[in-house]
Amino acid sequence: MKRALIVAFLLTIFSSVCFADDFLSVSGRLELRGVIPLHNNDTETEYPNLLGRVKVDTTTPTWRCRMWLEGGWDGSVSLPVKDRSVLKVGDKVYQSTTPFLEFKELYGSYSTDFLEIRAGIQRFSWGRLDEYSINDLLNPLDYSQFLGKSLEDRKIGVPSLSARINKNDWSMEAVWVPILVPYRLPLLTERWSVFPEIISVAKNYNAEIITQEPDLPSRTFENGSVGLRIQNTGNVDWGVTLFHGYDLRPVFKATEPVISLSSGTIVVDPGPEPDFHKMSSIGFDVAFVKGDWSLRAEAAYAFGRYYNTRYELWGYPSTPTFGTYKLNPNEHKSDTIAYGIGVDYRLFEDCVLTMQSQQIVITDRPDTLYDRQFETILWANLRNGFMNQKIETNLNFAYNPEHGDTRAKVSVWYVFTDSWKVGISAVAFDGPLLSLFGRYSQNDQVELDVIFSW
């Protein structure tokens, strides 16, 4: 199977190059990435990454096909995992495998001036805000490296059927995702684990940590998701979004942790298991441009979202011993209101400042939740170019005032040619252990990248 997929990948590249001039549009990228963790004593090692990307589009006017294939060696995963397929598919939460192949997009479409129909693996972009979108609910995200990846790289394609109708300034798009495709998480012991305290347990007690795959909802039509978006374009662009389906934010149910001894090794099943619940949402967004200013805003009311209680209330024993433990119920259901505004301003020719503020209101919040009734993210990004865009710089900062946690990232790229560029970046996290950014406070790193694109 592995060899067949590699051969298919090479044949795709070969055929794309040979026939591109006839009816295909082809682009691709190779990236070599090296990561230097700044807390080697506290987190797992990350090895160099070699990642490839090929995008192929047919250029025929009515019937079209699109393929976006990625693959390579992922140095952030634990090795070895021998029971995984090389091809990543949407049936697992924990997909720590390398080498790997993944179809980010693979669909066929029929389009006219009035109607476009697509079927296959698709990705959608609904809403207006960057990085932390409110109404973009159809695609799950890959959290295996958290915000180390861009939103484009984190978004997972889903098998879906979509239809879009266009009439003058109006458009309407309906999407059906017939089966649940879950988000992806790193293993509990990997560097970007959402439970960093488990890594400490594994190191302190020399224990083997078991990561249990959750029981996903059955892959039936009843467990699919649907979305509808109506949009008007003009001097002011605005849209209305309706969604019903699974909430794709990570939330965990507490099961039964087990501590045992096997062949002289302590084996720990920590117990938290990814959980999935359906929700409904109605949202609105708007955007317009005024001179050097670009303003964007969106809001949504969501029915029936789930949140986890504070970790210390889950019921873990203060002094664990060998055995099986029963944890307390740790999920709470509430409606939420989310809203946000973003502003882009061109300071001068090659310098753009983006500022964004958004907030989630938990309408029925008990004292057992770690999340506050109002949770805010303030985000700013400064992008600048020098020497006729030969040097690209980017400064990014995010802040959650309710818990005082922060994320800061700076990157510098040198562009040699249209095909070659080299960059260096550094990212740092800070805050309380359970906060959005604070849980990654041991993941500060410096990253070196070499990219060849065509």
In the CATH hierarchy, what is the class?
Mainly Beta
Structural class: mainly beta
Tell me what the CATH architecture is: Beta Barrel
Q: Could you give the order of the helices and strands? A: HEEEEEHEEHEEEEEEEEEEEEEEEEE
How many beta-strand runs? Answer: 24
How does this structure look, described?
The protein has 454 residues and is mostly beta strands. The chain has one domain: Porin (Beta Barrel). Helix content is 8%, strand content 50%. A hairpin with a 2-residue loop joins strand 15 and strand 16. The longest helix is centred in the first third of the chain and has 22 residues, at 2-23.
Key features of this structure:
mainly beta; Porin; 24 strands; globular; 18-stranded antiparallel β-barrel
Layout of secondary structure:
Blueprint: H1 2-23, E1 24-37, E2 49-58, E3 63-73, E4 100-111, E5 115-122, H2 151-154, E6 158-167, E7 170-177, H3 196-204, E8 208-209, E9 225-232, E10 236-246, E11 252-254, E12 258-262, E13 265-269, E14 272-274, E15 278-290, E16 293-308, E17 323-324, E18 331-348, E19 351-362, E20 374-386, E21 391-400, E22 405-415, E23 420-430, E24 445-453
Parallel strand pairs: 8-13
Antiparallel strand pairs: 1-2, 1-24, 2-3, 3-4, 4-5, 5-6, 6-7, 7-9, 9-10, 10-15, 11-14, 12-13, 12-17, 15-16, 16-18, 18-19, 19-20, 20-21, 21-22, 22-23, 23-24
